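INPUT
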Amino acid sequence: MASEVEKKAVFNAESAKDVVKQLRDSFVAGKTKSYEWRRTQLKAMLKMMEENEPQIVAALRDDLSKPELESSIYEVAMLKNSCRLALKELKHWMMPEKAKTSLTTFPSSAEIVSEPLGVVLVISAWNYPLLLSLDPVVGAIAAGNAIVLKPSEIAPATASLLVKLVANYLDSSCIKVVEGAVPETSALLEQKWDKIFYTGNGRVARIVMAAAAKHLTPVVLELGGKSPVIVDSSINLQVATRRIIAGKWGCNNGQACISPDYIITTKDYALKLVDSFKCELERFYGKNPLESKDLSRIVNSNHFARLSKLLDEDNVSSKIIHGGERDKTNLMITPTILLDVPQDSLIMNEEIFGPLLPIITVDKVEDSFDVINSSGTKPLAAYLFTNNKKLKEKFVATVSAGGLVVNDTTVHLAEHTLPFGGVGDSGMGAYHGIFTFDAFSHKKPVLYRSFAGDAFLRYPPYTKDKLRLLQALLAGSILGIIRALLGWS
Amino acid sequence: MDKFEKNLEREVTAMRECYRSGKTKQESWRRSQLKGLQTFLKEKEVEIFRVLKQDLGKHYVEAFRDEVGLLRKSLNLALKDLKKWMSSREVKLPIIALLSSAELVPEPLGLILVISTWNFPFVLSLEPLIGAIAAGNGVVLKPSELAPACSSLLVNFLPNYLDSEAIKVIEGGPAVGEQLLQQKWDKIFFTGSARVGRMIMSAAAKHLTPATLELGGKCPAVLDSLSWSWDKEVAVNRIIGAKYGSCAGQVCISVDYLLVEKTFSSTVVELMKVLIKKMYGDNPRESHSVARIINKHHFLRLKNLLTDQMVKDSIVYGGSMDEDSLFIEPTILVDPPLQSTIMTEEIFGPLLPIITLDKIEDSIDFINSRPKPLAIYAFTHNEVLRKRMVSETSSGSVVFNDAIIQFVADTIPFGGIGESGFGKYHGKFSFDTFSHYKAIARRSFLTDFWFRFPPWNNYKLELLETSYNYDYFGVLLVILGLKKSRRRFDIN
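OUTPUT
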């Protein structure tokens, strides 16, 4: 009884301050800097994944009814890959990078040294509660920082599991998990961090950035947006449809930041596209998708109510052409397709984050770009299915988003050589692979100058000759320098 | 203020329309604007020297060295490398991503707000502008009202050389700054104090606007006991050049204070006195080579640093001040109290405290017990000390055997850390700071992995796992049914 009461102790600003102080002491003592420490932690995290996959899958099933394959592949396997990549590349990432020097600082040499930022805060989201918590942590460890992780309280089973696992496998004097909701997060945000990495929505992101501003703390904000899919005609329709389905309903039943949010296609092609969807959806999820074990549920009743509201709006409910079945008790909504909802409807003005897919039709496929750009916000991702080279080029040139994919959806997330992040309302900063290491590092330039070769012309007394020499020197022109030295310019 | 606000909103909306038309994205537009800046610097050079003398008392050679010359160099580089900077970068993909390709494409962010400051009114306004233009953005520049002649020159003449539909210069003080911050920008680039930096970032948070904050701090110089007289002279010249020779120490990367060993300190002080005389003559004010303090407010601030008796007693050279001409002569102090304001706040003036230590290695702890500065300068031949400086301290940058010169090097990024700011620029880093590197992944319809799609089973799980591992042999084994699943739990 007594220990349970202890566990429920309030985590307030004092507690947050203590945690930060403890981590800062560890960091200043140099614990996290060594190659060996980073390696040990990364290896431990890998072991943590390997030894606890069933528990992780069970927690994700509790929190999200996530199908086991999605948990194993999109959370555990991706994380293991991150750890393996970091372990393989760590030495290389930690090495200083030689920088060129120019004539103006001759003689000199320079390098850029990666150093850890210090004590960092990672706040993650509920939809991929394991991946979005630990993937940034992998990079933060690789970069040599001390870390506090605050997982989302909306996925409580995973959050509790993370507390346990991190305490058992990782160095708890340098890496801590703090569970909690708004009060605990606020307490953490009052502290001074060397970086805050936040994954979530724009509303909370503003609060995080405002809190960071008080301490001049730089931030990475991984947000979302309405990721559009443009579907052209004369494509391999079956493959395209499957890829859209995989990106939409195959990713946590549409509750993913880079899920295809809505489709734009031509009036002529729309019905063909809808038929293809109906066919493939049945193939994937059967005739009775409410019973399918391969779809995540809606995370909680709040979101279920939110999504229901989107469907029930006037002029929208009549546009449902497939699906729309709901099961309130089990928090399930089946894959739902809507055709030509009004542009000013709720469903077209907020990020859907659920299994509803509106299709907007245009006269010519080129008109899609205006539809996307008229929203005035930049999404996290944008997708195009086409074989038309010119359309591909126009897409890349006119659509601004975090990342673009042609002829597929969401795959760029798995590619660690591509930086993953948003722009404008979809966020700032990027990560994955070396980009995570960079996000948690200070790239410190070090310039080595020699005592030889001092440019006396830097110093007063200032004369016209010095001016001429300086002009030549700053222009980096050897001839100019010679001329000036000889008094010829 | 209401009228100004309405006008501002209208102007920003018009700028957004202009940006949306795609004009600023064209390489030809960017080139024409950069060339316009070149012409501005060439045609208005005499004017620029005049207003810098008027606002800050800068000698024209100093003005060239620190402002005009630097900008010319940056423009040459930007024009030379623009095509290269604008080109997309191919990204390697693993073999399993058959018939796929990926690249990173730099694109402009949109509308940039550049707020600059008074000590280097041209370089701190135009260097970010160069980067923003090279990256294809529209820009609003607000120069500092504390350097009014310079600000007027920029407002009145710069638009004649640039496309005023996409690039605007707006004059004003904090009230104007506040109005500008209410608008939505795609990036804010701010140079100034940490206090204002916090306000800027808070305002940016409302629109989720990313920011680069170039702030300041107390940049220490560590002077090891050098034995060769050539080295000693060069080191001291570079220190006093950095302190007194650039805007009279009113520089974010000035040498704020100096750390030396007790046994070396009197040598240093004596050498400094000799070299200061050599640079500035017997009457530094008459040499016109030491800039003025910007205004009365800062003059009084600096004067107050010396009112404390113990601080006053530590002055070993200089100390004379003339309020009418806002002139403070090069001043040296030895061991003022560490809690005095001169040792806790950024000095930003021609006063150089020298702190003596038992061993030079103590400088590392001394530096680490204070907020992270924009730069650390260390003059030493000692390899061990150098390595420790780099790995045991944290600062925007580290320079060995020189000071301030890192500002000129466009192959290394320039920016702060912690209290000294975040983000970086100069050279290509300026272009990057004002760009979004958009990831593009292209796939073919021809290759597809059927095991990507439900309905799910253990077989697909094994294939996916081996694929993600790039374990090509493993994939083969799974297909041939030779790889047993290690999983014990049921698929559902």
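end of record. Chain B has three domains: 3-215+427-437, 220-415, 449-479.
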